[in-house]
Each structure stands twice: as structure tokens, then as C-alpha cells.
Amino acid sequence: GQALAAAADAATRSARANGFMSEGFRLAWPLALDAALATGDLGQADGLLGVVADAPPGHVPPYLHAQLARYRALVATARDEPTLDAETHLRSAITQLAELDYPYWAALARADLAGWLAQHDRGDGAGALLAEVIAVLNDLGARPDLERLQPLASAIGEQMEPASATSLPGRVVASGLRPS
Q1: How many other C-beta atoms lie within 10 A of the C-beta of residue 83?
Q2: Which one has a higher pLDDT value, 167 or 9?
Q3: Cα gap 78→70, rounded to integer Å
Q4: How many CB atoms lie under 10 A from the CB of residue 80?
Q5: CA–CA separation, 162 vs 70, rounded Å?
Q6: What is the pTM (predicted TM-score) of this model?
Q7: Predicted local distance difference test score (pLDDT) of residue 114
Q8: 10 Å Cβ neighbour count for 74?
């Protein structure tokens, strides 16, 4: 509860003070949405989605448009809404994030889609997609994300290999930063 409130407050204050282009908002907004989804607070998630969705045209950078599509899908899935809009939003997010050259975020969107496909008895497509995700996250050294994917991988029968010790630390990858 308190962590979610703090993350949501940080995201909305950052947007008001510095705009959507600020690094603070770019980092806080997805974290706040993740917290809202993890706690099942879909009202808070809706409010956070509205911060970006209701922004004036031209104020939202492409990265946030891509994340908006991803989180719309995740909120719809959390509500168990019987719609293919979630799949459409996730595929859109994957395309946008890949075009922006954000391999970490594109991999997370692919993992979300793999989970959605598996949940809707389309595990054949989920396995191949999750194999791609695992390869990318291994290359990036995103161990915490690989650990979070283990239950999904087990459910669809995908083998996971641990990230190598020489891979990048997860916090560098998660920020979207790439080493020079």
C-alpha cells in the first residue's frame, strides 16, 4: 500500500514538475503501474494510465506510448476482460519498443504476450516467444526478471538457463541504459 502510494505520487509529481520527457517520470511511471498491478489496485492503475493517456497531443514521447499500450493490456488482463485488445496492445508495444531499440522493455512485453497466449490456451506461440525473451534477458543479465519468468516457463515447458556471471547488472538493464 505505502510503496504503491509513494510510487504513484512520485510519478504524477514528476510529470507535473518536469513533464513526460523527464527521466524521473520515465522510470517512476512503469514502476508505479507494476506496483498497482502487483497489489491488485486496478483503480490506481487506471489513474496512472490516465496520466499518460489523457496528456495533450505531442507531450508523450514514443517510449511512453509503447509502455501505455503494454500497461493497457496488463490492466485488461488483470481484469480478465474477454477481449483480444490485450493481445493487440501487447503486439503494438513489442513493435514500438523494438523500433526504439529498447531490448529489455521489448523482452518484457514479449513475456507479457507469452503469458497472455498461455493463459488463453495458445501455448504453442507462447513457447517460442518465451524462448526469445529468455535469450534476450540472459544476454542482458536480467536475473530478477528471469527468476520471475520461471513459473511461466515451467507452465509452458520452456527451459531456462541462468544468466552468465559476466552479464550486465539487472539495475542497469532495467533502467533502459546501455553501457557505452
Answers
A1: 13
A2: 9
A3: 12
A4: 8
A5: 26
A6: 0.82
A7: 94
A8: 24
At 171, the amino acid letter reads: R
DSSP string of the chain? -HHHHHHHHHHHHHHHHH-TTSHHHHHHHHHHHHHHHHHT-HHHHHHHHHHHHTSPTT-S-HHHHHHHHHHHHHHHHHTT---SHHHHHHHHHHHHHHHTT-HHHHHHHHHHHHHHHHHTT-HHHHHHHHHHHHHHHHHHT-HHHHHHHHHHHHHHT----PPPTTSPPHHHHHTT----
pLDDT tens by residue, 9-41: 778 777 777 778 888 889 889 999 999 999 999
How long is the chain? 180
Grid cell digits, residue 55: 496528456
Q: Cell triple for residue 44?
A: 490506481
With beta carbons less than 8 A apart as the criterion, state whether 138 and 161 touch.
yes
pLDDT tens per residue across span 57-74? 898 999 999 999 999 999
Res 82: pLDDT: 65
Distance in angstroms (rounded) separating the CA atoms of residues 52 and 56:
9
The answer to whether the CB of 129 falls within 8 A of the CB of 113 is yes
